Amino acid sequence: MLYVEPAEQRERPPGSLWPKTAAGEGRERPRKILVCDDEKPIVRLIQINLEREGYEVETAFDGREGLEKIRTFEPDVVIMDVMMPYMDGLEVLRRVRKDPGTKDIPVIILTVKAQDQDVFDGYNSGADLYLTKPFDPMELVKLLA
Length: 145
Prior knowledge:
Layout lengths: L2 E2 L27 E5 L3 H13 L3 E5 L2 H11 L3 E4 L8 H10 L8 E5 L4 H10 L3 E4 L4 H8 L1
Parallel strand pairs: 2-3, 2-4, 4-5, 5-6
Antiparallel strand pairs: 1-6
Pfam families: Response_reg
GO molecular function: DNA binding
GO biological process, one term: phosphorelay signal transduction system
């Protein structure tokens, strides 16, 4: 799994996906996670591993559905593929970042697109982390802890 951390993160401490808690005690573990990918076996693999760790997981299988569930489910974190039907993950991400109600939700891109330009495009669109497939689901769980 290729793990690339952006040089600059939006108002978050380096190396942290989660904003400070209201009282400023450090990061608060996310509880609600949206997994958006058109590959159902990948979604199920992530869902099973996250639910085993106590997370509430919602799923979406295309970009349009993902964008709608971001608004209705109000996840703490989104894990999203780039290549999906109806609307690709980067377009979803750009719309999430433009919306004042969703702009601060951490988004992890999880995709097979691993070229330098792909990674650049992901971060330029607002990704907090860019991970590549194949991946170890337990490493993904550790990133969320």
